[in-house]
Automatic annotation (TrEMBL):
Catalytic activity: Preferential cleavage: (Ac)2-L-Lys-D-Ala-|-D-Ala. Also transpeptidation of peptidyl-alanyl moieties that are N-acyl substituents of D-alanine; [GlcNAc-(1->4)-Mur2Ac(oyl-L-Ala-gamma-D-Glu-L-Lys-D-Ala-D-Ala)](n)-di-trans,octa-cis-undecaprenyl diphosphate + beta-D-GlcNAc-(1->4)-Mur2Ac(oyl-L-Ala-gamma-D-Glu-L-Lys-D-Ala-D-Ala)-di-trans,octa-cis-undecaprenyl diphosphate = [GlcNAc-(1->4)-Mur2Ac(oyl-L-Ala-gamma-D-Glu-L-Lys-D-Ala-D-Ala)](n+1)-di-trans,octa-cis-undecaprenyl diphosphate + di-trans,octa-cis-undecaprenyl diphosphate + H(+)
Region (Disordered), start-end ranges: 772-866
GO molecular function: penicillin binding; peptidoglycan glycosyltransferase activity; serine-type D-Ala-D-Ala carboxypeptidase activity
Composition bias type Polar residues, residue spans: 772-784
Acidic residues bias: start-end ranges: 790-802, 819-866
Similarity-based family: In the C-terminal section; belongs to the transpeptidase family. In the N-terminal section; belongs to the glycosyltransferase 51 family.
BP GO terms, sorted: cell wall organization; peptidoglycan biosynthetic process; proteolysis; regulation of cell shape
Signal peptide annotation: none
Domain Glycosyl transferase family: from-to ranges: 79-258
UniProt-listed InterPro entries: Beta-lactam/transpept-like (IPR012338), Glyco_trans_51 (IPR001264), Glycosyltr_51/Transpeptidase (IPR050396), Lysozyme-like_dom_sf (IPR023346), PBP_transglycosylase (IPR036950), PCN-bd_Tpept (IPR001460)
Protein name per Swiss-Prot or TrEMBL: Penicillin-binding protein 1A
Length: 866
């Protein structure tokens, strides 16, 4: 083979190899493109199939839905209509009555491609799909066209939890259908007649009259921009409620209109410089009356939407509620006048929840003071920091329920840090009480005992179960899920939740979820029962013992919450600012952000919260100006009113609870000893079967009569000897003394024998008792007879008389002996006694002289006199 052929072959092989390499790359690239295309195709097919599946169940869209002329009637507990939602607040405006500036404002902020799209905005749909993937099936963010929003307002719920991908698909499908049936003008007109613009106001025609007292055709740029911006969050951007937020939102709309070339820069500046409150008119009499029940109506809306998915604004329902109109009016009057309570500061806010304890029926709600309009913030339904009102729910209730603690259970109030944390709770007075009972700890609202019980004695599962039985999700007590150590003394709950939970204490442990609605009847006559079931949330002993303890609170606070002849129980609560807030907002050290009082009778449970809408300088409550006591005054005014004419009975102690007298200070509880003073005996409640049995000896054991008492008289020595057995105490450190009484003469001894020389003759009664621990026991006694004593001279004479006298014989006198010389000095000494000194009887009768015994008798006499 020639060299040229060899080179040619090598070149051919090289090109072939490169060709194979190039072909392989192209092959795999083609495969990838095909795979991607297949995936996209499958995704489109799957998405299309899913879309078809979703829209197959889409509801029909009728003219009735679009116009929305059906109103709902709300009935009070007596069956009287007290409120109507729907047509009466909707004035339909014809296209020619709606100014172009109003249409432009909506297009600028809601749907810039409204005039060109076919009902849906593909960009918006893409954004919704991304939101579905990244938010676990929940749609967030905008993207809906005006047509889609009209569909949603007409046939779907506007609640955030209902914004699913299925709902978005159905909205899109119906929007496309609607665009094929109606003109753009008709769609925009229906939309502007359907949107909610605060409270019970629907449509721009009604809103224009409500806010500015003029027809929609006269709206100016700044007014039209306000309504266009309010559609996103009607109550949040209400100029009467939140003027700052409303003005900020309005100005965004104005700039959007300028950006779209709808208005000039000069017109935009002029509109922006107009205060949002300019031109606002006062509320009408009807609207002011509607404010009375507005908080209750808000709860009704919430319950029906949550339980049925129906919108009471459009569904044409008949709604039977539990409203007590007289109680509701009194709650509103108390909160919104100075006739009953001095609120001290104009911007103080408050909330009231009144619940019937046996049924859980909400009888009245007060959501705010001085409301600026309907459907604004309802504090009765919003979580507030609870302070100590949470203690019976997270600590003391579970401790009695699961650990069967008595009301006497002892806790030491001392400096304390929760184990495993750096949290050191403090008491309100910065003091420590030492050992105290569970009853006193709760009534006096000591923080440290509560923190000890919850974090050391209870299991988290027990607390969670107790709360769950009362309709409270423990994961919602704090900003983060779970139960925290601080929940022993604080947490977050709504006033309505607290009223419902405390109602269970009054109702023997039975709990019914607080509810405003009992029954709903739809337009076609279907009845929906919305009464929740009653369940046993706790044992009857827990409910009764907590109630018995909490009766001490209104008893101690009778000057502020006392109501004559009304058995009641209750609990106060106070929160604190964060440490940095005191300096940031110039709050005094005694200032607090929230104050509570939750109380109940055998008929009603009533919770009252007082605080502020926001933390700002001057927004604090204080004992110095009385503002911290506002909840108590509100409670007294409302509870005394609603309790009139009712049978306000005492709570009956169940058989599962036993009252026992125990010695105060004993730990564990002991029965009083026989010597326990009355001042050291307290009556406390125990779960039957857990009562104490041990008897206290702190003030001494029971003393008995001494044994072995005997008396023996020795006639020869003329001594009475009294003996007895030694008395032994259980407490070896305590000493015993003996109380001896002989013929009425008493003495105290420490020995077990007494000798009395020359005891009085006759029958003698001898008694003996013991003393110990500051007390004296019963007596033992014995009797003895001491014979009469005979004088020696008389005895000799008697003897001489009894002797026979012999014959007398003269005898010489015997010589007399000389006197002994030692007796003379004694006689001389006697003779030399100074004149006037009485002779000593002992010298006349030396044979009876007993100088040693006289001092003993004198000493005994002195002791007896003492």
């Amino acid at each position: 083979m020639s060299e040229k052929e060899q080179v040619s072959r090598q070149h051919y092989r090289k090109n072939k190899k490169q060709s194979r390499q190039s072909g392989g790359f192209k092959h795999w690239f083609k495969r990838i493109i095909q795979a991607l295309f297949l995936l996209v195709t499958l995704a489109v097919i799957a998405g299309g199939s899913l879309f078809v599946y979703y829209v197959s169940s889409a509801p029909d869209l009728t003219e009735e839905d679009l116009v929305g002329a059906f109103s709902s009637d709300l009935l009070d507990k007596n069956g009287e209509v007290f409120y109507t939602i729907g047509a009466e607040t909707r004035n339909f405006a014809a296209p020619e009555e709606i100014p172009d500036i109003m249409v432009d404002a909506v297009i600028a902020i809601e749907d810039q491609r409204f005039k060109s799209h076919f009902g849906i905005d593909p960009i918006g749909i893409g954004r919704a799909a991304v939101g579905f993937v990244t938010n676990r099936g929940q749609i967030v963010g905008g993207g809906s066209t005006v047509t889609q929003q009209l569909v949603k307002l007409s046939v779907f719920s506007t609640a955030p939890e209902d914004q699913t991908l299925e709902r978005k698909a159905q909205e899109a499908w119906l929007a496309v259908q609607l665009e094929r049936q109606l003109s753009k003008e008709q769609i925009m007109t229906m939309y502007l007649n359907r949107i909610n613009l605060g409270g019970n106001i629907y449509g721009v025609a009604a809103a224009s009259e409500h806010y500015f007292g003029k027809p929609a055709s006269d709206l100016e740029i700044h007014e039209a921009a306000l309504f266009a911006g309010m559609a996103q969050a009607p109550n949040r951007f209400n100029p009467r409620i939140n003027p700052d937020l409303a003005e900020r939102r309005r100005n965004i709309v104005i700039r959007a209109m300028q950006s779209e070339g709808m208005i000039t820069e000069e017109e935009a500046d002029q509109a922006i410089n107009t205060p949002v409150t300019e031109g606002l008119v006062e509320l009408s009499v009807v609207e002011q009356n509607d404010l009375v029940v507005d908080s209750f109506v808000t709860q009704v809306r919430h319950e029906i939407r949550e339980k049925t998915g129906l919108d009471i604004s459009t569904a044409g329902l008949t709604i039977e509620t539990n409203l007590d109109m007289e109680a509701q009016q009194r709650v509103f009057d108390v909160l919104n006048s100075d006739e009953y309570v001095d609120f001290v500061k104009d911007n103080v806010q408050s909330a009231v929840s009144l619940v019937e304890v046996e049924t859980g029926k909400i009888r009245a709600l007060g959501g705010a003071r001085n409301p600026g309009g309907l459907r604004e913030t309802n504090h009765a339904m919003e979580k507030q920091t609870t302070g100590s009102t949470i203690k019976p729910l997270t600590t003391y209730g579970p401790a009695i329920e699961f650990l069967q603690y008595s009301t006497y259970h002892q806790i030491v109030d001392e400096e304390y840090t929760v184990p495993g944390t750096d949290w050191t709770p403090r008491n309100f007075d910065r003091q420590f009480r030492g050992q105290m009972s569970l009853r006193d700890a709760l009534v006096e609202s000591r923080n440290i005992p509560a923190a000890k019980i919850m974090n050391e004695d209870l299991e988290t599962s027990q607390i969670d179960e107790f709360l769950g039985n009362l309709g409270i999700d423990s994961d919602e007590l704090n900003d983060s899920p779970g139960i925290f150590p601080q929940n022993a003394i604080n947490g977050e709950m709504t006033p309505l939740q607290l009223a419902g939970a405390y109602a269970a204490f009054s109702n023997g442990g039975n709990f019914t979820q607080p509810h405003a609605v009992t029954r709903v009847t739809t337009r076609d006559g279907q009845e929906i029962n919305l009464v929740p079931e009653t369940n046993r949330a706790m044992s009857d002993y827990t409910a009764y013992m907590i109630t018995d303890i909490l009766r001490g609170v209104p008893s101690n606070l009778s000057s502020t919450v006392g109501i004559p002849n009304l058995p009641q129980a209750g609990k106060t609560g106070t929160t604190n600012f964060a440490p940095e807030d005191y300096e940031r907002f110039n709050h005094p050290s005694h200032g607090v952000p929230d104050s509570w009082y939750v109380g109940y009778t055998s008929n009603y449970s009533l919770s009252v919260w007082t605080g502020f809408d926001r933390n700002a300088e001057g927004n604090y409550l204080s004992l110095e100006d009385g503002s911290r006591l506002i909840p108590r005054h509100i409670y007294r005014e409302v509870m005394s009113y609603v309790s009139q004419g009712l049978n306000n009975t005492e709570w009956t102690r169940p058989s599962s609870v036993t009252e026992v007298a125990v010695e105060d200070g004993s730990d564990p509880a002991q029965l009083p000893g026989p010597n326990t003073p009355d001042s050291h005996i307290v009556n406390e409640l125990f779960v039957t079967g857990t009562e104490p049995t041990e008897v206290s000896t702190s003030f001494g054991e029971e003393l008995s009569a001494p044994t072995g008492l005997s008396a023996d008289y020795d006639e020869e020595s003329d001594e009475l000897t009294i003996t007895w057995d030694e008395y032994t105490l259980d407490n070896e450190d305590e000493s015993v003394t003996y109380n001896l009484s002989v013929d009425g003469q008493s003495t105290t001894l420490s020995d077990t024998e007494a000798v009395i020389t020359e005891p009085p003759s006759g029958s003698l009664t001898i008694t003996l008792s013991v003393s110990a621990y500051g007390n004296t026991g019963p007596e033992s006694s014995v009797s003895i007879t001491i014979p009469e004593r005979i004088d020696e001279e008389e005895e000799e004479e008697e003897e001489e008389e009894n002797v026979q006298t012999p014959p007398v014989t003269e005898q010489p006198a015997a010589p007399q002996p000389e006197p002994e010389p030692e007796e003379e000095p004694e006689e001389e000494e006697t003779e030399e006694e100074p004149p006037g000194t009485e002779p000593d009887p002992s010298e006349e009768e030396p044979e009876e002289e007993k100088p040693e015994e006289e001092p003993e008798e004198d000493e005994t006499e002195e002791d007896s006199e003492e």
